[in-house]
Amino acid sequence: MKNLNYLAPDPGIITKKEINAPQKMVFKAWNNPDILINWWGPQGQFYYHP
After folding, report:
1. What is the CB-side half-sphere exposure of residue 19 using CA atoms within 13 A?
2. How far apart are the first and last CA of the chain?
3. Interior/surface letters 8-37, b for 16+ CB within 10 angstroms, e for the rest
4. Which partner for 33 in 9, 15, 26, 49 could form a disulfide, CB atoms 3.0-4.6 Å apart?
5. Do residues 30 and 18 lie in contact, with contact meaning Cβ atoms separated by under 8 Å?
């Protein structure tokens, strides 16, 4: 019988979203929680960050 114990590679999570905005603006929005919460989830969803 073969030993089938092995560590599977981490599948991780990959997200992709095309945004019609300048690269610098997207980077700033991604790194600033006050801006990020405005477009991160569905409209009407509430997000809180301390």
Report:
1. 14
2. 54
3. eeeeeeeeeeeeeeeeeeeeebeeeeeeee
4. 49
5. no
Contacts for 37 with CB less than 8 Å, ≥ 6 apart: 47, 49
Question: Tokens 């599977």 sit at which residue?
Answer: 8
Q: Which residue has the tokens 């999570």?
A: 13
| Residue 26 in tokens | 């997207």
CA distance 5 to 31: 40
Contact 24, 30 (CB under 8 A): no
Map out the domains of the chain as residue ranges: 12-50
pLDDT tens-digit series, residues 2-25: 555 656 577 677 777 788 889 999
- Looking at the predicted structure, is the pLDDT value of residue 1 above 60? no
On whether the pTM is more than 0.85, the answer is no
